[in-house]
Amino acid sequence: MGIGMLKCGKAPGIDGLSTEHIVQLTCLFNTMLKLGYVPDEFGTGVIIPLIKNATGDVSSTDNYRGITLSPILSKLFELCMLLRFSEFLQSSELQFGFKENFSCAHAIYIVKEVLNYFNNKYNSIGYLKSL
């Protein structure tokens, strides 16, 4: 169902939103695309900590993860962009966070392994350790 199928001039729903609101958002998003401009406020958010395990150690930072509360309009715009351009978007094989079946833990593991490798092979000033 396209936006054009919604009828203007009708009473708003229980949430107070009318078709005119959606039409205005559509115009705003299309203008942002045409101008190549996204308001700075769309990139702002508030990070709050969420506890991972309520029965765990609440004083441990490892028992928390941060989530960002973002403006709903920026989330809606992002969703529209993903729906419209997803076939053109690819992520790097070097990206670990925010990617299905990957996590930052994978990246941390790789960094630790690389550091261990070089620490075992080289001394502190960059020379190979004697064999």
Question: How does this model look, in words?
Answer:
This protein is mainly α and 131 residues long. It has a domain at 91-131. Helices cover 37% and strands 9% of the residues. The chain is built from 3 helices and 2 strands. It has helices at residues 19-35, 72-85, 104-121; strands spanning 46-51, 64-69. A two-stranded antiparallel ribbon has the order 1-2. The longest helix has 18 residues, at 104-121. It is elongated. The relative contact order is 0.07. The mean pLDDT is 87.
Nutshell version of this structure?
With 131 residues, the chain is mainly α.
SSE arrangement:
Blueprint: H1 19-35, E1 46-51, E2 64-69, H2 72-85, H3 104-121
Antiparallel strand pairs: 1-2
Overall, the morphology is: elongated
User: What is the H/E order?
Assistant: HEEHH
Number of helices: 3
How would you state the average pLDDT, rounded? 87
Q: How can the largest sheet be summarized? A: 2 strands, antiparallel
Oligomer: single chain
Number of strands: 2
Q: Report the span from N to C terminus.
A: 70 Å
Unreliable stretches (pLDDT < 50, length at least 5) are none
Rounded to an integer in angstroms, the radius of gyration calculated over CA atoms is: 24 Å
Q: Report the β-strand fraction as a percent range.
A: 5-15%
User: Can you give the helix content as a percent range?
Assistant: 25-40%
Helical/strand content category: mainly alpha
Strand order of the largest sheet: 1-2
